[in-house]
Amino acid sequence: MARRRSRTLTEVELEFMQVVWNRDEVTTEDVREALAAQARDLTGGSVRKVLSILVDKGYLTRRQEGRGFIYRATVPEEEANRNLLADLLGRAFDGSAALMVAALLDARPVSHRELEEIKRLIAQREAEEQP
After folding, report:
1. Cα–Cα distance between 127 and 58 in angstroms, integer?
2. What pLDDT, in 10s, does the model give residues 21-42?
3. pTM of the entire structure?
4. Are 49 and 37 in contact (CB under 8 A)?
5. Residue 82 forms part of a structural domain
6. By the 8 A CB rule, do 25 and 62 touch?
7. Other C-beta atoms within 10 Å of 43: how many?
């Protein structure tokens, strides 16, 4: 049975997008070199395939330059992160933000500084919701 194609980013696609978001524009070779520096040695063909998938999903645009392509992000990192969270919220937590936050707090130690920032964000959201 064919695998359902996701509109959100897979782990590998996210790695590629991190490279693109850290630069304005990239070539296949730029991505290959950046991933190789992270001990992720891929062939040019593998890199082109993933970049093509990202174009199809709408995360990248490309333009031809010479014999190759120049890629640019069309989805900002913050938007992609929101999409990933919304997907996870729906699939793993049945849409419950409270369950998701509880799981996050249980998943790893959370510093006092992080807890204070979370409290500040909640207070800010509550203030925005007031009439």
Report:
1. 35
2. 999 899 999 999 999 999 998 9
3. 0.80
4. no
5. no
6. no
7. 9
